[in-house]
Design brief:
Blueprint: H1 2-20, E1 22-29, E2 40-45, E3 60-68, E4 73-81, E5 86-90, H2 91-95, E6 108-115, E7 136-146, E8 149-156, E9 159-162, H3 164-181
Antiparallel strand pairs: 1-6, 1-9, 2-5, 2-7, 3-4, 3-6, 7-8
């Protein structure tokens, strides 16, 4: 009977531990070559914490981490989004054109961590508050290729659980990439305050 209580206790504890962790979005990119087309991610602050009238209350940080297919972090960046604001980034032009290795990968993984700002500015090396995928929504377009045929698909990302270990790794790997990159290893996210137009 005592073992049964222990098992039941663990079953109750595991979901509670999962809830205590953060949540984030994970996407992929593929066929990332210069063939006249690009893929994009789009991030929207859904206004969970405020409205455009309450900003900076309600602002969030969108922290983006770009990996190649070998799990190596290549670039990272962050942008501050006011409630209801849209931010965009093209994979080839903005996320993989300035990698720490100077190599543009053909495929890989993009991780988007949304959190309340840790201070007056957003930085991918310091996520700050517990990440919460519910602060926004993320869409991604993908280039699919079969033979000589190339076409674009778009999906809305589903939240994934972000462990404290992975959160720490993302911040540390980003710090290391920016430190050794000497200007390399930074990506770009375009929003309303950016003079550069977002990807089409």
């Amino acid at each position: 009977m005592k073992k049964l209580f222990v098992v039941l206790g663990l079953l109750v504890l595991v979901p509670a531990m999962a809830l205590a962790q953060g949540s984030y979005y994970v996407d992929y990119y593929s066929n990332n070559y210069d063939h006249g087309y690009d893929q994009a991610i789009r991030i929207i602050n859904v206004g969970t914490l405020g409205t455009p009238l309450t900003s900076p209350v309600g602002d969030i940080c969108a922290n983006v981490y770009v990996f190649d297919a070998n799990q190596e972090l290549l670039a990272c960046c962050a942008a501050r989004l006011t409630p209801n604001e849209l931010a965009s980034a093209a994979v080839n032009r903005d996320l993989t054109s300035n990698t720490v290795t100077t190599v543009v990968p053909g495929s890989g993984v993009i991780k988007v961590v949304l959190a309340q700002p840790p201070g007056p500015s957003c930085t991918p090396t310091t996520i700050g508050a517990t990440p919460d995928a519910g602060l926004g929504v993320v869409f991604g377009t993908h280039l699919q290729k079969e033979g000589n045929n190339l076409w674009v698909t778009e999906t809305q990302k589903q939240p994934s659980t972000l462990s404290s270990q992975e959160q720490g790794f993302l911040q540390l790997a980003c710090s290391f990439a920016l430190y050794i990159g000497s200007g390399q290893g930074t990506c770009r996210i375009h929003n309303a305050g950016d003079a550069t137009p977002p990807p089409a």
